[in-house]
Amino acid sequence: MVRTLRTIFIVVPVFLLLLGPTIARGQQSPLIKEIDIRGNKKVESDAIRQRIQTRVGDVFSPQRIRGDVEHLFKMGFFDDVKVEAEELEGGLRLIYVVKEKPSVRAILIEGGGDIDEEKIRSRIDFGEGTVFNPQAIGRNADNIQVLYEEEGFYTAQVVGRFEKVSDTEVDVIFDIQQGPKFFVRDITFEGNEEIASRKIRRIMATKKRFFIPFLQAGVLKRSDLKQDVERIKAFYLDHGHLQVKVAEPEIQVDREDQRLDILIRIDEGPQFRVGKVNVVGTKVFAPEDLQADLKLPKEEFFGRDTLRKDMAFLTGKYSELGYVFADIVPTTRVRADETTVDVTLEVTEGIKTFVERIDIRGNTKTRDKVIRRYIELAEGDVYNGKLLQQARTSLGGLGYFEAVDVQTARGSAADQLVLAIGVKEKPTGRLGLGGGFSTSGGALGSVFISEDNIFGLGKRIRLAFTLGTVTSALNFRWSDPFFLDSEYSMNLAIFSTVSNFDDFDEDRTGAEIIFGRRFLTYHSASLGYLYESVKISDVSESASVALKDAEGTTTTSSLIFGVARDVPLGPNEAYRLGLNGEVAGGFL
Description:
This protein is α+β, with helices and mostly antiparallel strands. The protein is built from twelve helices and 25 strands. 17% of the residues are buried.
C-alpha cells in the first residue's frame, strides 16, 4: 500500500500543472482521450486493460486511478506501477507504466539424498517460467521439509534462496541436508486407566517400527499424528468418556539411536452410562417397537457410534415404507452428578413418497430392460430404500459395470421421487489362450472365448477348445438368467471329449439343460436333465477284464437338481450355500 500511495502522489502534481489554467477558469475536469500501457513484456496489454477501471471517454478521477493501481498490484506480476499523464487536444493521455517482476528461469535442488528429485519437485507449487514470488520460497521449503519428515528424515534441513541471473530472471535453489533416518521406537500414554494402551495403538495410523526391511511402518507423519489425536478422542467418546481431553503429542528425539519416542497424555474423565432412551414423534410405528430394536439401550456405557447406528437404523426403517425424508434428531441430557446420559430420538416422519420415474443412464451396451430386472421397484410403487440398495448390490455383482450409482431427486410433486440409476460399462468379453502338461492328458493347449453380456441382453456364452496329445475336448455353454423374459433361468451345455489312452480309446459326448428360479430374495432352485454317451473302443489285449467288459457304448440319462442361497455381503463379496443331487436309472 505504501508503494501505491507514492506512485499516485507522483501523478497528481503533474496533473495539477496541466490543469492549473483550466481550474482557475472554473471549467470541468478533462476527458481521458487515450490509455497506453508501457513496460510490459510478458503480461499482455489486454490483460492489464481488463483490470483497470478507467476507460477512454471517462472524466479524469484520481480516486479511480488509485483503484487502478491497486488492482494492477493485486495481479501479482509487477514490482512497480506508475501512471503518467500527457496533455492532448481536448483531454489527456494516461500512460500506465509497469515494471514486471522477474520470472523463474530454473528451480535447482541441491543435496536431496535418498528421495527422488521428481518426488521433491512434486511438493513445489510453482514452476519454471512463472512470476517470481519471494514469499513462495519459504512456503515451499516447508513443503519439502514435511516430505522428508514423512520419509523418516526427521532432522532434515531445507533452506530456500534465489540468485539473480538478469534483470528479468532468477534461479530458485533449495539446499537440502537430509540427515539420518528416524523411526518411531515407542508410543506411550499417560492417564489411560479405563482403556488399555494396546487398544489405543490399534486405532492409530502412527505405528511403532517393525524390524522388517521392506516395511515402512514406524515412519512418523505429522498429519497422521494430528489425526490420531482426533481418533483417540472419538474412541473415548464411543466408550462413554464424554469429557475426555487428549493433549498434543510430545515427540522426543533420540539423536544417538536415531529414534523417536511419542508420549500422549490423556485425561479420560468419568465414564457415562446409558440412562433413559426414548423415541418420540412417531406415528407410523409404535415407539416401543422401535425402541426394542435399538442397540443403545442394551449398552452399559453411552457411545456416539452406537447412537449413530441407531439413527441410521431408524432412517432405514422409515425408508422401507417410503418415508425417505424422515428426520431423526437426537437430544442428549447429560446428568453429570449421576454420570448418565438420557437420549431422546425425535422423529419427523415427513410424507410417504412414491416412485414417479426410473431413469437409466450411462448404459451404452446393456439394454434398459436388463438393468430394470434387478430393480424391484417400478413406477408408482412406494419408495423403498432397502430394495434400492439391494438393486445396487445386484447390479454391481453382475460384472457388467465398473461403477453403479443410485441417486434420488424430487419429482413433479412433493410426494414423488425420480430414481436415477447411473452405470459405467466395462468390457465383458474375454479371449484366453493356455497350455500345460498333465500325467493323464499329456501336453495340451487350450483356447476359449466368452461373452458375459451378449448383445447387451444379459446372456452368457462360452466356447472352449482343448487339444492335447492324449485328450482333446470341446465345450459350449449358454446361460440365460431370464429365459424368454420370464423369472426362470436356463442353462444349456454341450460337451465332447476324445481320449486316446495306452490301453483304450474313450469318446464321451453329452448335453445338459437346467431350468431354475429364484425365490425369497436370496434363494434359488434348479431342475435339469443330463444325457451322456460314453464309447470305449480299441481295448488292448493286456487290459483288465473289467475294462474289456466295458468295451462298447453306454448311455446315462439323469435328472439333476439343486437348491442354493446366495447372500451379498458387499459390492465385491458374497457367500453361497448349495445342495446338489443327481438321480439316474429306474424310469430314466
